[in-house]
Design goal:
Layout: H1 2-7, H2 17-30, H3 45-60, E1 66-68, H4 70-75, H5 77-82, H6 87-95, H7 97-105, E2 111-131, E3 134-155, H8 158-202, H9 210-230, H10 237-244, E4 252-260, E5 276-284, E6 291-299, H11 306-319
Parallel strand pairs: 1-6
Antiparallel strand pairs: 2-3, 2-6, 4-5, 5-6
Helix pairs in contact: 2-3, 2-8, 3-8, 3-10, 8-9, 8-10
Length: 320
């Protein structure tokens, strides 16, 4: 368990090796030169520790573990809602590079845990309804389905899978620190480009736009000076504080309760006899898309090499 377990132990002392390792991980990802500043590592302890603890709480608040196999698909309404058909479960496993690598390294594994992410999609459709023994066609309905299944952080036990997931959440928060700095760098480059565009206008004495260009240049140089100062290493700690001290503003879970029938059609409160109330946890802020997240338990999964999968796909195409 090593690194992951150590990183998420309670940090009782300011010189905890686990906390120092996390600081090194975060700073290396944002700007390694920060390690040579006077503030390193002391000034980074509190924001990094706050982000670590939050990432762990977030990972352990994910629902699950939910078993995904043929039996669960038939009996568990939650699993049935997550996959369009039984074959989609094996497809999700087969298409996951993380799982295939895990199974390659642990060929005897018959059971493991992983983080599953999917995209929830709602679509207006026309379907059939039975009302008072009458079949109605072309009835407006709202279908809910899930796509883009991903399986990450496979592990032989649930706790390890959640620790690895917490580390991914921590890295995501650190990535948002870097994004803030990159945006300022891009702003600086845009100001330099505008300055270079204005320079030729300032050199033309009879150009009617010279006065306007000079006015803009004066303002621009002030903006450029501020942009360059903001990119001094001593100012980067403010970015760590802004994100890592307030991680819930950048990464959090929303719970969405939806009543669905066995066909994935959304039902209202008055339709409770035709559906089940299901709760989905959606991770907001991980990337540009929102993901429905669940810790899953996979059993009796077989490893197939790339060549075997390619051969299977080829045979399928020749048959159909």
């Amino acid at each position: 368990m090593g690194l992951f377990a150590d990183l998420f132990k309670l940090h009782d002392t300011p010189d905890s090796p686990a906390l120092l390792a996390a600081i090194d991980r975060a700073v290396s990802a944002v700007e390694p030169l920060l390690k040579h500043t006077d503030d390193y590592p002391d000034r980074f302890r509190q924001p990094v520790n706050a982000a670590l603890e939050y990432a762990k709480r977030l990972a352990y608040s994910l629902p699950g573990p939910v078993t995904i196999d043929r039996e669960a698909y038939a009996k568990d309404a939650f699993v049935h809602a997550l996959f369009p058909d039984i074959n989609a479960i094996s497809d999700a496993v087969t298409s996951s590079l993380a799982l295939q690598e895990y199974l390659r390294r642990s060929p005897g594994s018959s059971e493991f845990y992983a983080l599953m992410g999917t995209r929830r999609i709602e679509k207006n459709v026309l379907g059939m309804e039975v009302s008072a023994m009458t079949l109605q066609r072309e009835v407006p309905q709202q279908a809910v389905y899930f796509s883009s299944h991903t399986l990450e952080n496979p592990s032989p036990d649930e706790s390890r899978a959640r620790e690895m997931t917490a580390m991914h959440f921590f890295d995501s928060l650190v990535g948002k620190v870097k994004i803030r700095i990159e945006q300022r760098k891009q702003n600086k480059e845009a100001l330099i480009a505008e300055r270079n565009t204005l320079l030729p206008l300032l050199g033309t004495a009879n150009d009617p736009k010279q006065a306007e260009a000079q006015q803009r240049m004066d303002k621009l140089m002030g903006e450029l000076q501020s942009a360059m100062e903001s990119l001094e290493l001593k100012n980067y700690i403010a970015d760590f504080d802004a994100v890592l001290r307030h991680p819930e503003e950048y990464l959090h879970l929303n719970q969405t309760s939806i009543m669905l029938d066995s066909m994935g059609i959304k039902r209202g409160a008055n339709d409770s006899g035709r559906g089940r109330q299901l709760v989905f946890s959606e991770l907001i802020g991980y990337d540009r898309r929102d993901w429905t997240m669940t810790i899953v338990r996979c059993v009796n999964v077989e490893y197939h090499s790339f060549a075997e999968r390619l051969d299977k796909a080829y045979r399928y195409l020749t048959l159909y």
